[in-house]
Design goal:
Oligomer: heterotrimer
Number of strands of chain A: 0
Strand order of the largest sheet of chain B: 1-2
Order of helices and strands of chain A: HHHHHHHHHHH
Structural class of chain B: mainly alpha
Helix content of chain B: 55-70%
Helix content of chain A: over 70%
Strand content of chain B: under 5%
Number of strands of chain B: 2
Shape of chain B: flat
Number of domains of chain A: 1
Distance between the termini of chain A: 28 Å
Structural class of chain A: mainly alpha
Chains: A mainly alpha, B mainly alpha, C alpha/beta
Radius of gyration of chain B: 25 Å
Strand content of chain A: under 5%
Largest sheet of chain B: 2 strands, antiparallel
Largest interface: A-B, 31 and 28 residues
């Protein structure tokens, strides 16, 4: 445990020193600007826009950090050869993967929590009350971050950082387009195509499972089983990704 | 080897969870998603130039929206909104106009909106005969405005690539009376045979079956009266008509249901 | 004497591009380093020194052959626990302070009382005053010393140093040599590579010479010198150049 902790701390500090938390200030400014300038255009919709926008931007910031920093987590260490001394210590490769994962994940968790608090404060300023219902979006947004970070670490374990970020973006798009894939599968008349589409639908990460933003803004009912299953889905998917990443990373050499 | 088994097991777990989540997902989800679209113009601005693929995507969602609500609550409040966005993104999406107008009238029971939609389509696609044809069709079948219908069928028949269907329909509007079930049936069958789109065929089929059923009931009621005149009592069952040689065979119910007699009147079990 | 490192019939080849043929970098390397000795691994640049060291520390895997550390397979955590490694011209996490850097490695090396160990090592390599300075502000010599500190922090039995003296000024070299000798006195095994021969003359018990991926000679410094040259006044450097020229011819 202390070995993973060392890597977690190291990754967290290293990323923290890239001044990521400054994004919080940008986020606050963005939200205020949007709420002030969109007010006259929104015609009664401005509470909705403030919510939509806040949730969307905090989620996008999380995803962006995953893709930008997550892709270089392992590569920077290899390129700068800082990983050499780490590999030579009695550390399992899996511990490195998990440590890197948790380090960046914690940082993003701090960031997104910060953004959620700012969002609530701004809602409070405008409406005189918090909207605690929206808080459910935070853990789900973090689940999405988790799965994406797992994908990036998986691709970083064997390919370049550019490749990893491209794959991250592709999986992000595919992950949110999965309802359309299911639709295609449901309606396809070619049996083979139908089953291939279903296999992909169930195997590829379905990031729409973590997207409850609309339901929350409109206060539509969400089944508690759905919340529970989505939670399990995100966790198990992440475990799978980290497991495969570890297997590949164990074979990796450092030239 | 053990590792591959773990990986496969995890994948199965994931697929299973994914399946369960889909079962639990709120049916309101799609509406929510569509409420999200501010307006066609805003969507167009946000689509970063990818108008056509976005329109296609909305079309897919629209079909899903339609299917889901037809199966469940038959409420189509957002139908026009979606179609409006779609056709703003891609004003040449003929299907969205024609099929959309048909669904708006038939399912959403809102012919006014379908008229607006078709006018929008004609504005961008002035030479497309289908738009005129559907415009006429809606006036003829649903609104019973035969003069307008006749005019639009005639325009449609003169446009390039038009089949002879609008010409036939223009003739119908002149010589056949409306409310006459037989001519109505003939028209729907004509539409059914001339359209390739499954959704359109579906709607036509519904009308064909309905009209066929009405015709059958009309026929059976006539025969029941005949029976009463001869035997001075109402036949208690359909079979009596057959055994007393009033009819040669019992017509088959088009929905796959049964005809029956209650208090001297013929009904279909589909009507219940 | 028991062996600390044992390499048996090690082969290793590289592909620079996937369409190229594999280039053999190490050919049938057999090498044994005994416990408690200072072993100098000498050879010109590109001879295969760093590759050999990476194979020992687990950064690379051999194509074939067997590597054992104190009789254990080299990639077992137990074996790794006994190794301290300083890579060639190391770069460390820029943003970490000297203290944080050592703390990470102490934790990775399963140190129980890491705080005490970290300060001990900082004291030993003379960086106590720079403990809270970020590594990017360190000089070349300071980096080399903090690198050695991270290698020594687990109190390893086997210390592997890849070109520890390269790029240092005379004072820096003296300090590192003293550190090596101090470790030797504590009974530790030291395996270091160098292409600067006079360094080896001072501190090595035995040396191995590698040229073009093959071990040319292994033995005690004095014996090798006797065999290769006629008088003791000629330095190892001259002898070495002569050997390489003979080999090429």
């Amino acid at each position: 445990m202390h070995r993973i902790r060392a890597i977690v701390e190291n990754t967290f500090k290293e990323s923290l020193r890239q001044r990521i938390l400054n994004l919080l200030i940008i986020f606050a400014i963005l939200l205020i600007v949007v709420s002030i300038f969109l007010e006259p255009f929104a015609i009664g919709e401005s509470p909705k826009i403030l919510r939509d926008f806040g949730l969307a931007v905090s989620s996008i910031f999380g995803v962006l950090i995953v893709i930008i920093i997550g892709s270089s987590l392992i590569h920077k260490d290899i390129e700068k050869r800082t990983i050499y001394t780490v590999i030579a210590k009695p550390v399992k490769r899996g511990e490195i993967i998990v440590g890197k994962f948790l380090g960046l994940f914690f940082l993003i968790a701090v960031l997104e929590t910060g953004m959620t608090i700012i969002h609530q404060i701004i809602i409070f300023i405008y409406e005189g009350a918090f909207d605690p219902h929206l808080l459910i979006a935070l853990p789900f947004s973090l689940l999405e971050v988790m799965v994406l970070l797992g994908i990036l670490l998986l691709f970083s374990s064997f390919s370049s950082s550019t490749m990893a970020s491209i794959m991250g973006i592709i999986f992000f798009i595919i992950g949110h387009g999965s309802p359309d894939l299911k639709l295609f599968a449901d309606q396809s008349k070619v049996v083979l195509l139908k089953y291939i589409a279903y296999v992909f639908y169930y195997i590829l990460p379905n990031l729409e499972n973590f997207n409850l933003r609309i339901e929350l803004v409109y206060k539509l009912p969400v089944h508690h089983d759905q919340i529970l299953f989505s939670l399990c889905y995100g966790l198990i998917y992440t475990i799978l990704l980290l497991y495969v990443a570890t297997i590949i990373f164990e074979k990796r050499e450092f030239k | 080897m053990k590792r591959y088994i773990y990986i496969i097991l995890l994948f199965f777990l994931i697929a299973n969870l994914s399946y369960r989540i889909d079962l639990k997902k709120s049916p309101h989800r799609l509406i929510g998603e569509l409420m999200y679209f501010p307006s066609g113009v805003a969507v167009k601005a946000l689509s970063m130039g990818f108008y056509a693929p976005l329109a296609d995507l909305i079309w897919l969602r629209f079909i899903q929206y339609y299917g889901e609500h037809r199966m469940t609550d038959a409420k189509f409040e957002l139908m026009y909104h979606i179609l409006d966005i779609l056709t703003t993104l891609n004003p040449y999406f003929i299907h969205a106009y024609t099929l959309g107008a048909l669904m708006l009238t038939h399912d959403a029971k809102n012919p006014e909106q379908s008229k607006i939609l078709l006018k929008k389509g004609i504005h961008s696609n002035i030479k497309n005969w289908r738009l005129y044809f559907v415009y006429g069709f809606i006036h003829y079948v649903f609104l019973h405005k035969y003069q307008t219908a006749h005019r639009y069928f005639k325009i449609a028949s003169t446009l390039p690539e038009a089949t002879d269907m609008p010409k036939r329909w223009a003739a119908f509007t002149l010589y056949k009376k409306i409310g006459d079930l037989k001519s109505s049936l003939a028209l729907w069958i004509d539409l059914y045979n001339n359209c390739k789109n499954p959704e359109e065929k579906n709607i036509a089929e519904i009308y064909i079956k309905n009209i066929k059923m009405k015709l059958d009931l009309e026929f059976l009621n006539k025969k029941i009266e005949e029976f009463k005149n001869i035997y001075h009592f109402y036949p208690p069952t359909i079979k009596h008509l057959l055994t007393y040689n009033i009819i040669d065979s019992i017509p088959s119910e088009p929905h796959g249901c049964k005809y029956y007699i209650k208090n001297g009147k013929a009904f279909s079990s589909w009507q219940r | 004497m028991e062996s600390a490192i044992k390499l048996e019939h090690i082969y290793r080849s590289f592909k620079t591009h996937f369409w190229q043929k594999r280039k053999l970098v190490l050919e049938d390397i057999n090498l044994e380093v005994f416990q408690g000795e200072v072993f100098g691994f000498l050879g010109p640049n590109g001879a295969g020194k760093t590759t050999t060291i990476k194979l020992i520390t687990g950064l690379l895997k051999p194509d074939s052959g067997k590597i054992s550390i104190f009789g254990m397979p080299r990639d077992s955590l137990k074996a790794k626990q006994l190794i301290g490694y300083l890579p060639e011209s190391p770069y460390f996490y820029d943003h970490l302070t000297g203290y944080e850097f050592l703390k990470v490695h102490a934790l990775l090396g399963n140190c129980k009382d890491y705080e005490k160990k970290v300060y001990e090592q900082l004291e030993k390599v003379g960086l106590k005053s720079a403990a809270n300075l970020q590594l990017r502000k360190y000089s070349r010599g300071m980096l080399q010393r903090i690198g050695i500190a991270q290698a020594l922090i687990t109190d390893p039995e086997l210390i592997i140093l890849d070109e520890p003296l390269t790029g240092l000024d005379p004072i820096g070299r003296k300090e590192i040599k003293d550190l090596i000798l101090e470790q030797k006195q504590q009974g530790k095994t030291i395996f270091f590579s160098s292409h600067i021969l006079p360094d080896a003359e001072v501190i090595c018990d035995r040396i191995g010479i590698i040229i073009n991926g093959k071990i040319l000679k292994v033995g005690e410094l004095k014996q090798l010198l006797k065999k290769g040259i006629k008088t003791d006044e000629i330095s190892l450097e001259d002898w070495f150049v002569k050997q390489v020229k003979e080999k090429d011819a």
